[in-house]
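Question thread 4412

I'm putting together a teaching handout and wanted feedback from people who do this every day. The idea is simple: show students a protein as raw sequence, then show them the structure tokens that encode its fold, then repeat with a second protein so they can compare. Below is the first pair exactly as I plan to print it.
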Amino acid sequence: MLDPDGIIKTWNAGAERFKGYAASEIIGQHFSVFYPQSEQIAGRPALALRTALDEGKFEDEGWRVRKDGSQFWASVVINPLRDDSGKLVGFAKITRDITERKVAQDALRESEQRFSLLVQGVTDYAIFMLSPAGEVTNWNVGAERIKGYSRDEILGKHFSCFYTEEDRAGGLPAQTLAIARTEGRFEREGWRVRKDGTRFWAHVVVDAIRDEAGELVGYAKVIRDVTERKQAAEALERANAALFQAQKMESLGQLTGGVAHDFNNLLAVMSNGLDVLSLRGQDNADLRMLETMQRAVARGARLTQQLLSFARQQPLKVERCNVTAVIRGFEAVLRRAAEGAIGLEVRPESRPRPVLLDAARFEAALLNLVVNARDAMPGGGTIVLGVENVELGEGTVGMLAAGPYARVSVADTGSGMLPEVAARAFDPFFTTKEVGKGTGLGLSQVYGFIAQSGGDVLIHSEPGEGTTVSLYLPVAGDTSGDADTLPGPALDTVLLVEDEPDLLDATAQLLQSLGYEVLTASNGSEAMDVLSRRDNIGVLFTDVVMPDGIDGIQLARSTRSLHPAIRIVLASGYPLPALKAQHGNLSDFAFIHKPYRLADLVRALGMAT
């Protein structure tokens, strides 16, 4: 007890135990003796009594001093005491030594401060706490950097604001807390939304936080922006898919090209034989049969051309083109192909970049695409043919290099395709049409032509949503197209070099029917021997691909070096651009593409028909 002036009047055993004074030593002294010197000077003892009088109670924590001068952390309560008349008779003072609690609190506070500094120092991760209901209760610098909200803006808001609208509609925020609450942890990746509305791909971890009694007190949430990692993974996946597609198409192209090349040789035998027979004179029935057979050979030749187009071995007459102008010039044909209830809308680029194209084959590719689109809409619909200039990044479309391109797209509103069907759309002989209504070579021919032109083709299709086929064509430089001409007059003796015996015989008869003297050789070595023995040879007519180590191009170059007066014609089922890519400049030689007809030979040899 204290009197009204603060003088100690009574003293219990507890006071003696932790303050160190015996009752005889302390009664009669002012209670300010328990305060540190600094607080005595500051008037804290008087303030305590005055507060107790004014407010009816004084309660405080602070440092106090024992008899031996050591300090302890005390919890102090002072209450005024009054008699029955209300007169102040003194104060009741209760002091408790809570030093241990103070030390523990200070240690906890220091730990929390260090942890807060650590969390606030992390900028690559968003680290924040949620209340049990999901409201944000704290916020680090990383969260502000990644999500865009300042601390004052976000505290108290529900964390669902970070989710996309579709995820909120699907109940993902509530599901996240439910899983964390029941399993202790939630971890997932998905799209999240910044303050400005932009999205980022996030790796999210949510841990449930519980107190010592096991009661849920909130959630700790850690988020990392892994958008770059996701983009890199997607780019790698696209590159792998493009590489696989390119390898698959290359393998198919090599197989198809080889088959078509051999088939060309067989057709050439038949065609040349038929030409020889027709020159010998037959009755009308025989002539009609020969004409029928020639038409069949022509159809077979068209089939091989389609295969070679897919295999990128089709001879192209390349020229600098304005794609919009080509489409405008061909638009009437495309509209007739669309027919009936199908509408065709052309959306041209006003200033399309020039491209290098075989315009006739490009028109055929467009017609093919329009017919396919028409067939996909038996109940009617719309075809949109668009042209636009685009800039592609590295790996954006297949294996195409980054740079400027012209994109020509044919979009329909038809039935669309399943992903597994669209993935096979370019494969030769693959078709979804009824038996007898498609060869399965249409899209493969388009693919081969565009690939041979230096571009690529993409298909986007969904069932019930229609199909869009996009052709990407590289912008032309100053390169001009190929021109295969053979000036000069024909001569009388031809050295024919061909490793296929049937084709050698048929072509020899065809040349003889034109009045030529024909010398034959089945390989390059035999031809060199004939050239060394005969000095009246005017034309060397040689196949390019031969098995004995001296191919037709090596033979042609040796002949040009040793016998410059001899005219040379190269024959191959492979296109001239492909041969040039492998063997270099061939402009000194004429070229004829297999299978060739009588008229083709006349043109190549420079004779008038």
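The second pair follows. I'd like the answer to focus on this one:
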Amino acid sequence: MKKQLLHSGWQLTTVGKNDTIPATVPGSVYNDLLNAGRMEDPYWRDNEMKALALMDEDYRYNTTFDVNADVLNSERVLLRCEGLDTIADIVLNGEKIASVCNMHRTWEFDVKDSLKTAGNTLEIVFHSPTKYIKEQDKICHAGGSEDAMVGFPNLRKAHCMFGWDWGPRLPDAGIWRDIMLCGVNGGRIISTYVKQTHGENTVTLGIEPEIETVNGAELTYTVTLTTPNGEEKVYTGSPKEIAVENPQLWWPHGLGEQPLYTVRVDLQRDGETVDTWEKRIGLRTMTMHIEKDQYGESFAHEVNGVTFFAMGADYIPEDNILPRTSPERTRKLLEQAVAANHNCVRVWGGGHYPSDAFYDVCDELGLVIWQDFMFACAHYNLSDEFEENLRAEFNDNIKRIRSHASLGLWCGNNEMEMFTFFGGLALMPNNPTGQPPMWELTPKQKGDYTRLYEYILPKTVKALDPQTYYWPSSPSSSGDFDDPSDETRGDVHYWDVWHGSLPFTDYRNHNFRYVSEFGFQAFPTLKTVESFTEPEDRNIFSYVMEKHQRNNAANSKIMTYLGQTYRYPTAGLGTLLYTSQLLSAEAMKYGVEHWRRHRGQCMGA
């Protein structure tokens, strides 16, 4: 397949205004406005409010390009958009070719008949996400976290962009991943599923390419396997299986090495390669070990027949302005996790599906991934159109991620079964806003929950990635609203230390099977505080410091806990901030040491 990136010559304009500026693609509206000096740093003091107001506007990206001859002359030409955030109209050479509304999807459109050799114009108009969720909520209320903007579940956009209890409301927009033309001749490989069957001293790889043909072409493929040592072996004749003798097994960090094999599938027509699919894989078995035992029912990661204690953290988006992240920044972050003896990372469901670079590094470092689907603390109204959109999202991301050695678990959502089980009205005794309670569910929404997480998603995972374990929610005791916070089964989110203001000693009252979320907040370092404050703001109860604290009453909570543990630090703000970090470390140490002492009963923190 011939590819031509469309990354150059872009301009950004606020719709209805004469304010065109250069744009970077991949990139975002906020990033371009910052680079052009058209907006202030959204992290500085309370500039978040100014930045949020900018998202009430619509924005137009446009470029002009010539088409490479080998692409233009292909039998089929696709416009491939790997990330559009989020509500957008796409216009090519004056003709509207599509409207899209999901930042988590890859969008493809057949554009061969719309292209010319030179002077093609491409325009993508991004509509206001803030206006959209507000209007949609009037039509059909979908409740969720009160820390986010009302209506956020109505849009397939990273939920935390609309605010969370750890971050600001900065719902950026733009072409956030690659955009390109793809020329297809004869056919292409959509994806390939590599199924592993482990025997004694042999791993059999089942090769299942998904092939799309053009004009009825007769296609074959070859498979090239490259070992971690660089040795290549080529298998011709469209093999369905290949055998790996004396396999080098992949292990999580701390249990062994992370050797990676490369599988390349070359699609051929009349002996000529027309497309290639290539991925690195690790030879391992990976599942969850769940069985009745003396404590209830176990819940532990099992790799190559060995269970291990999961030590890790939740992974949330690294920056509210996504273009400021990079493979290098992500690698450094994950290397720090390994340096802290982590062997597991939970990709939290309120952000976005990470880049290929994230999974590549986890493969290399031995970080097992608990992968949430992108649903968190919200309820959804499953119209036919919304369900079709979701199914395409699942298809795209499962196929993209499933080959990675580090993928240990697919999880339906973050905290949805728990909130549905306990009920919304109990969580919101007062509702002064007059809005519908965020967690008040209609009978249909309760039914939609079951349909989405206990029917659609498990069947989709079984069809596309049957060798990876599916868990319906976090926390859960296996689904069906069967006491999702049961301490004797499944996983638990435990926040009574912190949100519940209980002392650290309360950790010792609980012997969970797997603690997939817990924590204790600290203030940032003085250097960080100086990066968003004026000198007069540098008091933890100032307006600006409270503005940057998104967890309700948390600054006071830190001080209350601090007073229970230490004498008051008197050497200035820097010492107070540092003391809060010691306090947080003490809380984490208390919980982690307790659960690790009960290894076997508890198998994850």
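Top answer:
Good format. For the second protein you could add a caption like this: The chain has 13 helices and 33 strands. Confidence is low (pLDDT under 50) at residues 424-436.
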